[in-house]
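User: Can you fold this complex?
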Amino acid sequence: MSVLEIIIALPLLAALAVWLGAPARAASLGATFVNLALVLYATVQYAAKPAGLAFTNARVVLENPAISFAVGADGVSLILALLTSLVMLAAVWQIEDRPNIFYISSLLIGGGAMGAFLTTDVFFIYAFHELALIPTFLMIALHGRADPAVRKAVAWKATIYLGAGSLVLLAGLVWVVLEFSGGSKLTFDLEALRNQAQLTPLPVAKQAQIFFVLLLGFGTLVSLFPFHSWAAPAYATAPTPVAMLHSGVLKKFGLYGLIRIALPLLPQGAQVEWVQNALLLMLLGNILVMGLVTIHANRLDDTLANSSVMHMGYIFLGLAAGTEIALKGAVLLMFAHGVSIALLFGLCGRMRNQLGTLEYNKLGGLATHAPAFTVLFAFGAFASIGLPGLANFAGEVMVFAGSFTEFKAGELSNLHWTVILALWGVVMSAVYMLRAYRNIFHGSASTGLFMIDPAFSQRLPFILLAATLLVTGCCPWLLLNLMKSAL
Amino acid sequence: MSVFTIEAGLALLGLVLLLVEAFKPDIARRTLGLTAIAGTALALVMLLVVRHDTASLPSFMQPWHQLDTLALFYKGFALVITLLVLWLTLECAPYLTRFTVDGKLAEMFSLPLIVCSGMMWMASARDLVTVFVALELVTVSFYVLVAFARKSAFSLEAGVKYLILGALSTGILVYGIAWIYGATGTMSFDGIAKALANPATSKSTALFGAALILCGLGFKVAAAPFHMWVPDVYQGAPTPVTAFLSVGSKAAGFVVLTRALDAFLATGSVISTEIQAFLLVIGSLTVLLGSLPAMFQTSVKRLLAYSSISHAGYLLLALACRETARFDLSSGGIVAFYLATYLPMTVLGFLGLGLMRANGLGEDIKDFTGLAKRNPTLALFMTVSFASLAGLPLTAGFIGKLFVFLGLADHGYWGALSCAVIAAAAGFYYYFKTILAMYTTEGVETTTLTLSTASKAVAGVLAVIILILGVYPKPLQKMLMPASEAVAVK
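Assistant: Here's the predicted assembly.
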């Protein structure tokens, strides 16, 4: 029995227990606390271990096609597991006066994400992600914050996009399994597929095709432009814990899949010119188009939702560059973005509950009555802009620097141009985040609306996330050292 | 003692119950029902303990009766579904009796036993005559069962439709059998396979006969374009009968199809290319014509009818994937596996529907609104059932679909695969539409809905089976692929 199996099972069992009638808050908080402790324990253990997968354990589920419930973690998966447990804890913690289904769905989404990050069998990686999508969809449709008709439409839109994306992804994964199984037996074991890919690499043209299918599938799940339009309304409508968990954690699944499955199996696929150009165009869409859209948002939830779509562009840039620094930066940025957006969505949800509106022209001057809240929000907002000292900065710098390699004067490649254009996204981030910050917390409200600081126990989940941003921002090596081998 | 005595005994029990009811009309409904259930359960236990080998059969039976893994599996399958249907009938009895003429349910307990006996017989058939006789035993009993709620116009309409189309398909089937006999000079599947491998066999004659047989069986399993009767009949028939039709009758059709196709597509068969193409086209059509109209249904029962058509399509596509060398399952094995996953999820769906009806609710999607508030347990079980029917990973339904998809992809049948994927996507839509309704809380008057402990237990067991098969399908696969046959394939 591996510790990872406990980490995956714990939230799911807690969800079951709550459904069966266990005290919801105590059970959820207990399970997520223990989970965070276990993930930290595993991370510390892993720091002392050699590179490669650790804590592996496989239980055969089917012999042919070979499918097994195989767990295993390396640096990347542990970083994402850490992100999951942090955000899940904060999301569960900040729930107040809500029906039990809020706890159950948060635990299911978190547990599903955990399973997707910590299993090493393509079948289960896919399955756990789907498991996490269902409560997301149901919660938006049932407890979203708009008219029933509107939120159902939003939920359906997200479901159709994500469902279609998942099916494209399934097609890509089946293709991978058929190509890399080798011999007489189909296998879903990622390690076996990887070994086969190293033994007999596919022709580059075919790698590019498969990579592109996987990119479309995984990309839709990460709201890659132009398959992004489900994301912003879904986050703006979703109940707070769901918005935190999906935008912070579950969305990273697509990127994780690309790093875990697509890049190792199809190492040259991403570098083929037409794939690379397509990816660069799409990620520029994320950064520039969505950046402009975000600037024009005039409600906080719209700003945050669109910014979360926009920031995916940087991570894709890291993947497109494919150098070691850029890839590690991308993973760091996944972690940083997850923590910062979860923090912001959590605070945003609280504001909506207290104030009833998030429109900039109705708000102002909140800093006077809610100083602690303001500071916490500032942590999230400045991290999101990329202020040095907070986690996102380290990731973004690594991505940009890692992408701008092999530079010769007068010969700018498409990748170089993309980096140059993408840098303007940082400016846009600063514009919309500072604008939001000023409108909400400074000046005075035309409507006279104000709120006071939450009780200390309700500040704690946000303090936890803000502290994480600060610690990883100042000591990014804590996470970077976990990624021992080149990605 | 051999397995065939079980099915004979079961038919006998059916007849006895029929006579008892006729001559002793004041016998309690519960007594009849429980006797039938006890008999079926006993048969199930006996199936596990008696001799399974073909040598246990008397020598005169051996030419037309076999006891291979598939036959035994389908026999068990028939017993399980009959058991569940009998129990469901008993559970829905207070509601059902409102629509029967004398307020009785007598034949509802004896006829399923005869159907079961027919299905078990069919699973062992080695020639077309046995198939035909067994199939008619099943179908004729169903004519009565479908129209059983005689005071309901829907049930009558369903009965008439089923009778007319059933009779027509039987005619087509017999006609096909005659042509095949004309082409090959034999009725036995082994003989047909041998004759078809002989290049001297008239290809067009054999093809015509085989196509007619497939069309006739297509009616029985609800393959497009012979599926038109399904929505009306499923909607009109009493819910336990619908469940029986949807699972039992379909499985019976597929075991015959598996046997027939093993003969038609045997190595060297002169008609294999055409039959294979026929299967792919029919299968692709069926998944689409089942799934796409299902998106627009407002009645859950009708929706389940369309979904059952679509599942028949996946099964047909599985049958088209011969020689799946990279699997541990033959195409017949994949079909059996799929049906084994299909049983719990479909029965659970109809069970929920029947229980809701018994509590005075309708069968429309809007009647599902707020079910989670009325009875969270039932809502959860129904969610598991629908999620599995949709093919959500970690449920039994996904594994079945995955086998079909992998088989199609492995053979490079991309056209059929795309149809199957489109149908699966549509499936997600209509099943989740229903799930969403269950958890919606606005505008619901919250009368609670009560379940008996037995219902809860049965539904719970079915839900757990769905989940277990979804994450640990290995034992079932092993059961369908005994060591000797696994070696033979490799």
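Residues 318-490 of chain B form one domain. Residues 486-490 of chain B have pLDDT under 50 and may be disordered.
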